[in-house]
Amino acid sequence: MTTPAPSSLDQADAVDVRKISRGQRIVKELLAAPLSARLGVLIIFIYVIVALFAPWIAPFGESEIVGKKYLPWGEAHMLGTDNLGRDMLTRLIYGARNTVGIALVTTIYAFLLGGFLGIIAAVLGGWIDQLLSRAVDVLMAIPALIFSMLLLSIFGTSVASLILIIGLLDATRIFRITRAVSLNVVVMDFVEAARLRGEKLGWITLREILPSISAPLAAEFGIRFCFVFLTISALSFLGLGIQPPTADWGSMVRDTADLITFEDYTPLIPAAAIAILTIGVNFVVDWFLHKTSGLKDEL
């Protein structure tokens, strides 16, 4: 007697059950997480919501001049206006979309480039490993901020140039850590067994090596995002990052810096937005590192 094949409806129900159980597992992990990790997740969630819905949350247009320059805090403008008469609260909200969005895209690009080359160097070895490693050493020998300022001065300060240059320089750090953790995996028995079976390089990389190094790379992603985020903000403060009239937290600090001499602490608000997001991401990264390390919480 043959067993009837499961219907497409049964398969869909099984997929839904797996999705629900995975969601419940994530919620359970978050509830069991320490207070710092839950606070970090909350901070990231708030920033993501503000970035996604900035046009609907902001009271004015991103570059709209709504009054005189340097107006004080009040009902019409909760955080006052900047050096051109633009609403500071609006600029702060749009800055979440621009600064965080560009930093996220840059970090993803850096990880794709540095991670791919790091795994290739570890798997192939030989002259390819030496060539890539020495090229990375040369790039890392120059301070990243100074090198990025030089390259941006040459190639221009467009968003595309900013992403490509910062991503390339940050990929060197990702290359080093990816190569280091991959070297510990390529000597394992299961990788050698895959080679003896005749598996191709792409299969070994994606199915054997990448899953084994995903935990440290995921933690490194959060750390790298913070560094990229701070680098872009620093470049914007120096006038070489995100260009006006696009709202950016680094340039907002520069535009309102004169107010500090009049005991007006408005410039500290975008600086605080940068610091709070950095702290939130680090809280989550610390928790993730603790979980993947296999260590138990002390009672």
What keyword list fits this structure?
299 residues, MetI-like fold
Brief overview:
It is built from eleven helices and no strands.
Q: Give the amount of beta strand, in percent.
A: under 5%
- Extended strand count: 0
- CATH-defined architecture: Orthogonal Bundle
- The residue ranges in which pLDDT falls below 50 over 5 or more consecutive positions are none
- Overall tally of structural domains: 1
Radius of gyration: 24 Å
Under CATH, the topology is which? MetI-like fold
The first-level CATH class is given as Mainly Alpha
Distance between the termini: 56 Å
> Based on CA inertia axes, which overall geometry fits?
globular
What is the H-and-E element order? HHHHHHHHHHH
Structural class: mainly alpha
> Helical content, roughly?
over 70%
Quote the average pLDDT: 82
With helices defined by DSSP (H or I, 4 residues minimum), what is the helix count?
11
Main β-sheet description: none
What name goes with the CATH superfamily? MetI-like
Overview of this structure, please?
- The chain has 299 residues and is mainly alpha-helical.
- The chain has one domain (39-293): MetI-like (MetI-like fold).
- It has 11 helices and no strands.
